[in-house]
Each structure stands twice: as C-alpha cells, then as structure tokens.
Amino acid sequence: MSDEPSCSNSYAARTDSIVNSQRDSIEDECDDEVDLGSEEDSRPSKNSSSPDSDFNAPAIVNCIDDHAEYMIEKGNEARYAQISPEPNPVIFNIEIHEFEKRGDGINAFVVYKLETEVVNVPGYTKRHYETWRRFSDFLSLHGKLVEKYQSKGVIIPQPPGKSLSAFTKTKVGSEISREMGVDRARHLVRFINRVCQHPRMSVDCDVRDFITIESPLPKVIQTNSIAGFGGKFLKNMQDVLAKMTFQMEEGDQWFEKTQGQMEELEFALKDMHLATEKLVAARRELATSSENMSKALGMLASTEESTTLSLALSALTDITENVSAVWTKQADSDGEKLSETIHEHLMLIVSLKAVFTERIRAWQQWQDAQQLLGRKRDQKTKIDLSIGQRSEKSEQLKVEIEETIQRMDGLEKNFGDLSKAIREEVVRFNEQRRLDMKQMLVEYMENMLNTHVEMLKYWETLEPHANAIQV
C-alpha cells in the first residue's frame, strides 16, 4: 500500500485532462469504471478541489476523521445507509410464589398463582399479569399445543406428570403438603417458561389467554390420572405399531445423523440423571448422619466433667448441626438446578422424538398417496384397453387421478415444510441446550464453592475451643 493518506472527500484531485477525456464516456455509460490514470496523477488529496470539473459524483469516505467534514459539505445530499436501532429486549418471565387448596373432599383441587412479566411481546398489552391456574389447566394447555403445533414440527415441552400420591393427599388431606406444592410449582414454572421461550407458542392465543385472563378457564373433561395414563399408553402403542409395520426409507443423511446423535444424548443424560439422583440422596443421607452426630455430641457434652472439653464438645455439636443444614441446602440445590434440569432435557428429547414420528407419518401419507395414484392409473388403463374407448367409469377415474395428484403434491409439500421446520427446531434446541447446560454447571460450581466456604467458616470457630482443652 502507498504511504500517502488514503482518506479523501471528493474525486476533485483528478487532473483536468483525465476528467475531460472521460466525461463523454461517463455521460454515455455512467456505470462504466473510470480510468484514474497513473498513480502520481490520480493520488487523492484531502483538501484539493477542481473548479473546472463539474463531475458531481458522491465522495468516498474511507476514514472516520473525514466523515464530519463530508457531512458538512454535502448536507442533505449525502446518502448514507442509516444504522438501524438496536431491537428492544424481549422479557417473558413467569413465576409461582403462592398456591392454595380450594374445595373439599372429592372436589378439592390446588391452584397456583402465576405472576408474569411481559415486555415487547406482540399481543400483550400490559407489563404484569396475575392469574390463578389449577394443575389441569396446564395439562389442557399442553394438549392444545400438541394438537396445533406438533404436526408442524414444533417441539412441545412436557408438563410434570400426575402423581397418584399427590392426587390422594389433595382429595383426602385437609391441607396440601408444603413440600409437594413447592415441588410441583417449580416444575410447572419450568414448563410454562419453556413454552413462552418459543417464538411461535409465546404469541399463541391459548397461551395468551392462559396468562392474561384472570377468570377461571373452562373445565377440561377427562383430565384424571387414569384417563391421562390410558390415553398416553394408547398413543405410545400406536406409534410402536406404526414403526414396526412401516419402515421409512430415509433419504436425508442429516435426519439419520441427528436421530443417532439424539439417541446418544438421551443415553448420556439418563446416566447423568441417575448419577445426580444418587448424589442428591447421598447428600441428604450425609445431612441426616451429621444431624444424628450432632445430637450424640450434645449428649456427650452434657455428661463430660471437664469444663474445657465440654465446651469444645458443645462447639463441635453446633458446628455439626450447622454443617448438616448446609448439606441439606446443597442437596436441595442439586436436586432443583442439576437433576431437574437434566430431567427437563430428557423430556424435551422425548418431544423431539415425537416430532420425528410426525415426519415419518407425513412421509407415509405421501407414499400412500403415490401408491393410490398408481392403482388408479392402472385401473384406468385396464378399462380403456378393455372397452377400447373412454367410458363414464374412465372419466370418473380421470377426475379421481387429478384429485389424487393434487393431494399427493400437497402431501409432498407438507413433508418438505415439516422437514424444514424440524431442522430449525433441532438447531434451536441445541443452542438452548448448550446455554442451559452452561448455566447449570456454572451454578453447580458456584453453589459447591459457597457450600465449602461456609463450612470452612464453621470449622474455623472450633480451633480456639480445641486449643483451650486442658487434659
């Protein structure tokens, strides 16, 4: 590159001879490239101008310093691409802080208070919403979303499953268990927030009504545990039988590779989920053992005759009790942020498999239409050959063939659109999964670090008591 400055605000530095020689060609063909001549003659000058030249081409700005001067010179004639403003941030967050039991006996049910914050989402006129929803409302919403979007290739998050023990406690017990209510509320929050993260489902009319309408939603028929289990079992059996009786000839290597990757991911997540469940159980057992140890130390301290040793044992009792509480808190954190996150992604993979099954079903419908078209063409050919001329039956088959062709084209287009939508959903799923896994691991390490720092502070308080023991 030349050592001369490369910044210029005009083409006026060109020599008069070059401008005059090129003027005619510019008038004839304004898009032709202009020959700038030799490097010495065409070297740009920042402050140069040519009064004899009437060539009013827009200036080239190559550096930041010249930008202000150029804008002053050209004013409104400057044609710059305006920098688009940054998009407004989208906020869609739902939390459940309260729940209560309503009704008595067999008519009893639990409702959860949804507190929603929505910003820059179409269809939502307010920033904050508060609604009460029962568990069956969540199941009804999931059913509607599956019916509308699963056949279109959208991955539908799974709601928490029904629990027979929770059902019994709600119907028979006078009050709902606090632990059971908090646990279910946390799973419901995961489900509804995952739904609202999706760009299509977040603006769905059923989702919007679920979040914004303050009055109770219409009661859903057949939402009991037995009906839900029976319907799910029947659908699973239908899918299994369909796969056994019909094998799809996969022509897209991307889908074949993706399904293999999802199988491996599901297997790895199942192992990790089992390991985290054992980890949580071990931490709870450690917390229980520490609490029992604290009680035993307290009894020993009360019977010790040595004052200094009794004080040290009392201090150790308090420390062991505090350590037990810390391990309990760590076990709860591991269960909520580690184990439940992994289980949530396992359920998303189940939903992704259901979408792949929809693609197989769409391909099967397309193939059935092709086979039907072939049979109708064979029938028409046989009739034409046997009669020797077109008959009423032949004309009817001709109409049916045209209708079958149109239907087959529609099924082919549907299969292509579904395949494209699934590709986009898989990409979105993988991106969100990486973000979730990163957040999960970071939070786990931070919690573990805080746990050990807190326990270290407790154990450091034992040192002066231990040093003060007199034998």
From TrEMBL:
It comes from the Eukaryota. It is found in: Cytoplasm; Golgi apparatus; Membrane. Residues 26-39 have a biased composition (Acidic residues). Keywords: Cytoplasm, Golgi apparatus, Membrane, Phosphoprotein, Protein transport, Transport. Coiled coil: none annotated. The keyword Phosphoprotein applies. InterPro entries: AH/BAR_dom_sf (IPR027267), PX_dom (IPR001683), PX_dom_sf (IPR036871), Vps5_C (IPR015404). Residues 1-23 have a biased composition (Polar residues). Residues 1-58 are annotated as: Disordered. This is PX domain-containing protein.
